Amino acid sequence: MTLLPTTISGSLPKPRWLASPERLWAPWLLEGEALAEGQRDAVRVALREQEEAGIDIVTDGEQTRQHFVTSFIEGLEGVDFENRATIKIRQRYEASVPRVVGPVSLPAPVFGEDARFLVSETSQPVKYQLPGPMTMADTLADEHYGDREGLAMAFAEILNLEAQALVAAGVRVIQFDEPAFNVYMDDVKAWGIRALELAARDLECTIAVHICYGYGIEANILWKRGLGSEWRQYEETFPALADSTIDQVSLEVANSRVPTELLGLLAGKDLMVGVIDVATDDVETPEQVAAVIRATMEYVPLENLIPSTNCGLVPLSRTVARAKLRALGAGAALVRAELGM
């Protein structure tokens, strides 16, 4: 196995013929079979760009999804998309969201066909992203369960069924995206990790959880400005994650105020360390990426270190995102060369 295998946390910008560029959650510009064909073509492009940049564990760049949570929820029963409600998400910004109006269930896998296509288009290990149960519960207006923990556990059961279909399609790594883990720390320890483990139950693949400080959008930038000179949210949850059955933890490091020593709280886990800043158009040099990797090696054994991006790249231009991918691949290659690998 390659040491310092590179990956991305998930999303990549969509081609402008598929959705408007540099916009989160942009609506599709195609319909029907043209949309399905356009999404498949976009997945092929995303794969080639990752492969050419030297990314070792590839994703679909989330080219078939508008939103990392609601695009999955669209396939569930018990959720009303037509009559939405406005709620505050992650205690930061208001959004119009679907409503949970009855018991949630999964009639059929949502991403199974997409995953099979993705695996068929590359010879490299494939990672697939799913929303985590706590973040799902935080992104909907619950009018049925009346209990965030109960709703999250119901979502965890559904996610486990979906993940089984992804594994059957040939996916090697399943990543649950849990930005809510950086907001509701008490809930994470009380039931959030338990819900995550339920979602990952009996899956024959590597299980990762992605916890970052969000896309480089204004609401997240403003929130981070108020977090002080050091961002220590990870300090509250990492010890519990270290004791969990989750294999990998994805976290934000590049250009952040996260004290690097906090990585030592995850001893025994693989760490997807964010060495690419997604909140700026400035493109890192390979040397800058290598410097971040070296800094983390003081706290993370080499065999457990996976250089990655802080978060998704979808709000950036394709030119910037492509350059950042290449910097990620080249920076990891520099460190490997230094180590004689």
Describe the structure.
The protein is an alpha/beta fold and 341 residues long. The chain has a domain of 236 residues: Alpha-Beta Barrel (TIM Barrel). The chain contains 10 helices and 9 strands. The strands form 2 sheets. It has a 6-stranded parallel sheet. Helix 6 links the parallel strand 5 and strand 6. Helix 5 packs parallel to helix 6 and helix 6 runs parallel beside helix 8. The chain is globular and about 55 Å long. The mean pLDDT is 93.
Task: Detail the topology: elements first, then pairings.
Layout: H1 32-53, H2 70-73, E1 77-89, E2 93-105, H3 112-120, E3 127-131, H4 133-137, E4 141-142, H5 148-168, E5 173-177, H6 185-199, E6 206-211, H7 218-225, H8 233-242, E7 248-252, E8 270-276, H9 286-296, E9 305-309, H10 318-338
Parallel strand pairs: 2-4, 3-5, 5-6, 6-7, 7-8, 8-9
Antiparallel strand pairs: 1-2
Helix pairs in contact: 1-10, 5-6, 6-8, 9-10
CATH topology descriptor of the domain at 32-66 and 104-130 and 165-338: TIM Barrel
List SSEs in N-to-C order: HHEEHEHEHEHEHHEEHEH
What structural category arises from helix and sheet content? alpha/beta
Main β-sheet description: 6 strands, parallel
Specify the CATH architecture of the domain at 32-66 and 104-130 and 165-338: Alpha-Beta Barrel
Number of helices: 10
Write a compact overview of the structure shown.
The protein has 341 residues and is an alpha/beta fold.
Key phrases:
341 residues, TIM Barrel, three-stranded mixed sheet, alpha/beta, six-stranded parallel sheet
